[in-house]
Design brief:
Number of helices: 7
Oligomer: single chain
CATH architecture of the largest domain: 2-Layer Sandwich
CATH topology of the largest domain: Killer Toxin P4, Chain A
Strand content: 15-25%
Low-confidence stretches: 1-11, 13-30, 141-155, 262-291
Mean pLDDT: 75
Strand order of the largest sheet: 1-4-5-3-2
Radius of gyration: 25 Å
Shape: globular
CATH class of the largest domain: Alpha Beta
Structural class: alpha+beta
Distance between the termini: 11 Å
Number of domains: 2
Length: about 300
């Protein structure tokens, strides 16, 4: 009888620990830096007039990707060129300056697979994740390059997103302008990266790491003007140009926009980043439902055990 009672007490303690583990708040997970923001692939691929150009391209690209991923353990930016008798490919990756080296490597390691999947054999491509990006372009295929359709790779404005929620307060414009002015002024100190916080308005600006300082400021200024002009009072916005980006978020006083702040590029990109969002939400619902089922089962077992005693 004593043995049975002891086993019941141990079972109760185990159930209590498991239930407590479900109820206590877990540690905040690291942000998903590998969430895709957008991709841009050239329509022209490596085919004729070179019989072996396609396979050569695959080998060069694979070799370049391996080199980029290996360097992401040591630095947040790296540019390299790989070539052979058929030409060369230049590529680089860049991680956000405010993420850890481990997160940078983890983010970059996922880029080659996505690039190969979405931009298979493209002569030029850009894949932008929330925490890192990859770009490459073939430099030694003059016959093919002459046939690149203008605008296939949008070297100016590559991506724009404006949220459907707008700011309610009249202070929004003033806070936005102050934050944008600060990130522009701090670019030199941050070596191409800066951020600012103004009463709930957070803004960030970033340039390619090897970009000249003056060109970086000009690029960011252009991105800021696009954000102001096209996103208006949207509480969140992203503007990606060829060599720089500006992102912002206002965390106070929001409402649905009456006229809508969504841009053409946002609607265009919903099939890219939007699918990831919906899949993530479905996973959250499934995991949450599973956890709730386990919790209810454990409580039921505990009640039955108590009733038997």
């Amino acid at each position: 009888m004593e043995t049975s009672t002891m086993l019941c007490h141990r079972a109760d303690r185990l159930i209590l620990l498991i239930i407590t583990g479900f109820l206590l708040p877990s540690a905040e997970p690291n942000p998903d830096f590998a969430t895709m923001v957008y991709k841009d692939c050239a329509n022209n691929t490596f085919t004729n007039p070179y019989v072996d150009a396609a396979s050569s391209h695959d080998q060069m690209l694979a070799s370049m990707f391996d080199e980029l991923v290996s360097h992401s353990l040591q630095s947040k930016f790296y540019r390299t060129t790989r070539g052979d008798d058929h030409g060369s490919i230049t590529g680089f990756y860049q991680c956000k300056r405010d993420i850890t080296a481990e997160d940078c490597h983890g983010c970059v390691a996922k880029l080659p697979e996505i690039s190969n999947s979405l931009c298979s054999r493209s002569m030029a491509a850009k894949v932008q994740f929330s925490g890192c990006s990859l770009r490459y372009i073939a430099d030694s295929f003059p016959q093919e390059k002459d046939h690149l359709t203008p605008g296939v790779i949008r070297y100016e404005e590559e991506h724009r997103f404006c949220s459907s929620e707008c700011a309610e307060t009249g202070m929004f414009d003033e806070l936005r302008d102050q934050a944008f002015e600060e990130v522009e002024n701090e670019l030199e100190i941050g070596h191409g990266y800066s951020s600012a916080e103004k009463e709930g308005f957070h803004a960030e600006a970033e340039c390619e790491e090897d970009m000249e300082e003056m060109k970086c400021r000009e690029c960011v200024s252009a991105a800021v003007e696009i954000a102001k002009d096209r996103c208006e009072k949207a509480i969140r916005g992203e503007v990606y140009l060829k060599q720089c980006s500006v992102t912002y978020e206002y965390r106070e006083h929001r409402r649905e926009c009456e006229s809508g702040c969504e841009s053409e590029h946002q609607r265009e990109g919903e099939g890219e980043g939007g699918d990831h969002f919906h899949i993530s939400k479905q996973m959250e619902v499934m995991l949450g439902g599973g956890a709730a089922f386990v919790l209810i089962t454990l409580i039921f077992v505990a009640v039955i055990a108590a009733a038997r005693r």
